[in-house]
Amino acid sequence: VTDPKVRDSLRNLLNDQNLDNPKDPVPAFAQSRKNIGCIMVFMKHLQEFTRKRTDITDIGAYHKNWIFEELCHLVEQKGDSSIQPDSYWALWKLYKSRNLLQLGNEIIARLDTDRNHYEVYSMMIEVYPNDWVKRCWRYFMEETPEHYEHKYHQQQKSKVPDIVIYARLVTDTLRALNVLYVAKKVQREKLLDENKELLDKLVETGKLRLEKYRSLIEKDVGFSAFSLISSLDESIFKTSESFFKTVLDLWKSLYL
Ligand SMILES: [Zn+2]
Question: I want to staple 198 with a disulfide (CB 3.0 to 4.6 A). Which of 137, 155, 161, 209 is the partner?
Fold first, then answer.
């Protein structure tokens, strides 16, 4: 995925010389410019990811579901993945004015991907609820809450400003909330019994994760901050406009 040929073909295909390829090894990604969409799949990375998933027995279904996710991304991008609402750029300017553009960009990119996945996952659970559960049930298990807390405290020993550390924490909290909202929308009656159990596991580990975020937020960001975040309505995730507008307001009220 980091091969310069990937970047060049992406730029030529979508006719945009500013486009960049992902820096991390991803199995697949989707990009679009001016109503032309492109999905790139990297078999080597896909196989590496598959090898880590010892719980997956039907590899064909797993791969198909991954490609379906990329198709959903193209739908979610509505023809051009570079177009963003004003509130997105307002957030960008906020970090620029503080000379924190690089760290800010990382946070904004994270918020954007998480928001997009709310829309993509909502499409996926409609059509392939069983495949989605099988693939995503370990969402919160890549890292234990204790490990998260350890990493969080490590940041405080580094040169990263507190407002960035807290903004990352709030971003992670929003991500957990949005995945839990999606999980709640899965139509249980369509699930095989074994997948019902996996869905319960996803919700259970997600709630544990939220509790960890709650304790860190209440301690560092402010006592009422967590209830403010968790009281946000699910509908904020529906579009980038509503999402970034809410994020901007939230960042202002929490002094992030
Ligand atoms: Zn995705």
Answer: 137
Ligand 1 center to residue 71 CA distance, Å? 9
**Whether the Cβ atoms of residue 57 and residue 214 lie closer than 8 Å to each other:** no
Confidence check: pLDDT of 2 > 90: no
Residue 187 pLDDT exceeds 90: yes
Distance 117 CA to ligand 1 centre (A): 6
Half-sphere exposure of 32 (CA within 13 A, CB side): 17
Residue 105 pLDDT exceeds 90: yes
CA of 119 to the centre of ligand 1 (A): 10
Gap from CA of 25 to ligand 1 centroid (Å): 13
pLDDT computed for residue 20 by the predictor: 87
Q: Give the distance (Å) from ligand 1 centre to CA of residue 76.
A: 10
Residues ≥6 apart with Cβ < 8 Å to 238: 118, 119
